[in-house]
Amino acid sequence: MTSLRQKGFSLLELLVVLLIIALLSCLIFPAINAMRRTANRSLTATRAQVIVSAIKAYKADYPTYPGQTQGAVDWTYDNSVANRRHSIILNDLTNNPRKKSYSELSENLTTNCYLDAWDRPYVIAMDENNDGFLTISNGSLAGTTLTFTSSNIQETVAIMSWGWDPSNSATWLYSWIR
């Protein structure tokens, strides 16, 4: 008598394969998220340095920083209110008397500002009182003021990003800390 062998997989074999795939994906997804975060941090830091270089190049060509208010204090531009918008800086970097483009980075057309890799506006500060030190005061993100005060940064231009978790200061990125 010949035995008939059925072709295909048993239900148990199929469940074992699915269990192995599920276990592998549980191990792989955190690594993928960590790599994505690292790539976003690198992109954000690189873009911040490009903006810093553009602002410093503008200052080298003109006697003031782009959008400078000529005040006695350093201004923080975080796109939260009208007189702190990136568009003030962007206008000078792109529409200046010498018709020179200081940055090849494109601003977000909807918000008219530079966004980091997490689509949040950078916090930009310039040494507008020319004392050689910067003070970045309370920045705002999505209408919420996050207390951040850093003074005596020995830079002429500094940029900060809120990172992937704005509520966690350990994820924030600073152009003056490399």
Walkthrough of the structure:
By secondary structure, the protein is an alpha+beta fold. The chain has one domain. It is 34% helix and 15% strand. The strands form 3 sheets. A 4-stranded antiparallel beta sheet has the order 1-2-7-8, with helices on one face. β4 and β5 (144-146) form a beta hairpin. It is elongated and about 95 Å long. The model has no long low-confidence stretch (mean pLDDT 82).
Task: Give the CA-CA distance, first to last residue.
Answer: 78 Å
Q: Could you tell me the number of beta strands? A: 8
User: Over all CA atoms, what is the radius of gyration?
Assistant: 25 Å
Class by helix and strand content? alpha+beta
Count of helical regions: 2
What's the order of the H and E elements?
A: HEHEEEEEEE
Strand order of the largest sheet: 1-2-7-8
Which features would summarize this protein structure in a list?
178 residues, alpha+beta, 4-stranded antiparallel β-sheet, two-stranded antiparallel sheet, 2 helices, 8 strands
Question: How do the strands and helices of this protein lay out in sequence?
Answer:
Layout: H1 11-61, E1 75-77, H2 86-94, E2 123-126, E3 134-136, E4 139-141, E5 144-146, E6 150-153, E7 157-161, E8 173-174
Antiparallel strand pairs: 1-2, 2-7, 3-6, 4-5, 7-8
